[in-house]
Please model this.
Amino acid sequence: MSSPDQAQTSSKGLLTPPFIALLTTEILSNLGQTCLVFALPLHLLNISGSASLYGMASALAVLPFILLTPLGGALADRLHKQSTMAVLDILSALTTSCR
Model:
């Protein structure tokens, strides 16, 4: 037997306003991160003219994602997802804004 609270939450579906807001911010965050990973090595190529330096910078830009994905997956399973995403987005913004 389902309680009225369960019936009410299941009838709303997935596209609730808080979920849409969370999805939108995550899409924008990922788009910005992807542009940053592409744009910084490209700027380095324009400054230096070295294709090997561009390739090395591109490879090093992807390396943290490869190495930290297993740790991030384990933490995401154990922690509150909204708070975790907010903290990681803030850390990413602080990291990219500091020279």
About this structure: Residues 30 and 41 are 17 Å apart (CA to CA). The chain is about 85% helix and 0% strand. Helices lie at 4-12, 17-48, 51-78, 81-97.
